[in-house]
Predict the structure.
Amino acid sequence: MTPEHDHQHLPLFQTSGLVVGYRGHPLLPPIDLRVTCGQLWAVVGLNGAGKTTFFRTLLGLQPAVAGTLERLTDPLPMAYIPQRTQFSPLMPMRSWDVVATGLERGTSFLRPSIGRAGRRQIAEALERVDAGELSSQRFGLLSEGQKQRVLIARLLASRPRLAVLDEPTSAMDATTASSTLELMRELASEQDLAVLLISHQVNAVVHVADHTLFLDRATQTVVQGDTDQVYQHPLFNRLYGHVHTSGDDFPPHTHAHAADEQR
Amino acid sequence: MTVATASAALGWADFIDALEIYADPMICAAVAGTVLGSLGVFIVLRRMVFVPLAISHAAGFGVAFAFFAHIAWSATWLTPVASGFACGIAATLLLSLRRLQVQREALVGLLYLLTAGAAVLLGSRIVQEAHQIDAILFGIAVAVSPRDLHATVVVATLVLATQAWLRRGLIAVSFDSDGARVQGLPVRLLEAILMLCIGVTIAVTTRALGALPVFALSVGPAFAALAFVNRLQRAMLLAALLGALCGVSGYVAAFFWELPVGATQATLCGGLALLGLLRRR
């Protein structure tokens, strides 16, 4: 997992007029987004705002209602951590086995063994997230914070360019949530990884996300841009109250790239 | 033919003597228990425990229909094996369809009710073959034809080999199918292969063992194994072993205590599932 800083700011994908929804019914106005290596995007919004639908559409897990999603680098290895409710508690897997599933790409599972390199990749990924001691423990019995660390190790083992995490901090206390978000910030910088994550903890995520996408289905609003800017949007403030951002300490001219409100 | 040879004086020496009769059915039950137990791990993990019940009863209906067609319409070309296999596979395909606007659970219930009820109705119209219908539904028969035994062994070998070959892909998909799709794994193909393995195995073993024991063997051993080990591959091995033991034990119990084979196998599997439940608590 050597840092590859030559990829910094490499554009990964962009959406043009992407409309997400179900069975042809749009949930939100069109979304235009361009994501590059090393960025950490927070996707925020109330429950039912369409955040997970947006993620699933980005990842190709469900079709878009309209618009295009263009991959600007090929191949674009992606990794996804879905919501925690999707993992069966019955599954008898050690943390090591969970991380090993991250190694699989395409039909790699047809090879008889993951090999020495694969085992090293797993060990390194676990160590990177300080989960080495969890490797032989049953995944289903770990705390939520420990599970997320193992899942992030799985994500690292798959060596993605784009990491998408759906509410990784939903079941964590404030301290664990902050350290998990901080870890993602570190990984995004260290590995030139583009990270998109959904979080309801707007007070915590503001400290790690350089960009934010704010979705509100009720008012059909999509706001995106620098986190400091988005957090000052009137609708955002009405829903979440005023959240202190680093931008509060800076003069207004630092907000050169204004948040791009659509509708 | 039923196992009605037991008496208080019977011992293991008698049982060994009787193996000439029971060897084929016991081998068949052991092989079927092995493959159903191993597949059962995925059946339980993917929360589709009643799918085998619906498929096995569909296969049972297919066999009953062949008997009925033979008597009512002299359709000798329709063999019970082929008819049971066709119905089992048809049920598997129906349950695999993604575009139906019905939940799988509802479809499983509907399929079970229709096929189990229809099999009993057909049985009432073919009195001379009615015991065969009971055998197919509840597994009270001892005799296993060489053709059923060979079919079971061939299918079990192919399915176990497929599972071993695809195990890492199946594990990744069972743990997190969305994550696996994002990583480019052929999730739908793997799921289709798994369903095909389940369908073919159940369709073939139902003819040999009966619907009830097949359902029990595909759920009970796996449920217990999942509770007792920490690794999926070990769970598959343990479930296969427990399945084989339950399959064989049905015949042992039948020999010594005059118990019906299929019901004994089902009860043993149920006992294992209960153990698993207690262990989980």
Confidence is low (pLDDT under 50) at residues 1-5, 249-263 of chain A. DSSP finds eight helices and twelve strands in chain A. The radius of gyration of chain A is 18 Å. The interface with chain B takes residues 56, 59-61, 77-82, 86-88, 90-94, 97-98, 100-102, 104-107, 109-110, 114, 138, 154, 158, 164 of chain A (CB under 8 Å).
